[in-house]
Fold this sequence. Notes:
- This protein is mainly alpha-helical.
- The protein is built from 12 helices and no strands.
- It has helices at 3-11, 14-52, 58-62, 75-107, 111-124, 128-140, 148-173, 176-184, 189-217, 221-226, 244-252, 257-289.
- Helix 7 crosses helix 9.
- The mean pLDDT is 88.
Amino acid sequence: MSKSASRLSAAQSPRARRRRIVSGVFAGACVLATLVALAALALILWELVARGVPALSLDLFTVDQPAPGSLGGLRNAIVGSIEMCALGMVIALVVGVLAGTWLAEYGRKGRLATVVRFFNDVLLAAPSILVGLFVYEIMVAPFGGFSGYAGAVALAFLATPIVVRTTEDMLSLQPDALREAGMALGAGRGFVIRTVIWRAAGPGILTGGLLALARISGETAPLLFTSLGNQFLAANPSDPMASLPTTIFQFALSAFPDWQQLAWAGALLIALAVLLANIAGRLIGSRRHRP
């Protein structure tokens, strides 16, 4: 029997047919699961657009939270969310980039670095409500008041592990030849890291920061324990501060249709912010890998 005939016979054997059937069933299950996920996402987006777009207006961005039955907007919540997310990201970027740099450049495979990575992974998977309760115990209860600062710290706790992981991964991808070339010219290790390695890994680190921002933009539970909320515009972070997630939580559970409509508008704003942050992160990441 020739080789081609043997291969044809093997391809038509019961075992080969069983493999093809199993492979086809597996591929079909993957496609079905993908369609289910996409259908769920499409339904969510459709509901957000259908209910949120009619509530969009100039008052939404220029007027504070209204009393039930009166006209108003979400200015106080939008400003509060921007302030707390910005403060939280400043803390997360400073701590996360420095910690990730130490893991990638100094700690590497040492025992202490392994312990730090373990606790970073634990914090990465920690429920946000536990983070909010922890910040409540260290910042709200001892000082006797909710504040935007406490909310920002709670958000920083959630964003920092993402920045740490991303920074370490991006720095680890840089070839050692870059470090060796810099130090061969007489530059110190810290100078090489700051001027060469950070610059080469910059787009990746920025992508991680944007993903972390997208992660904390919709967090509600930690802000309920820390910033609480404020029906008026509070620019000072030392005061209780409104945020979009907590306002949506409050309005969506109310019995007033106008508040519920504002909750849908706020949810649409958060979804758009998260979508834009993710798109920006992907674009920066893809540009970095472009030849």
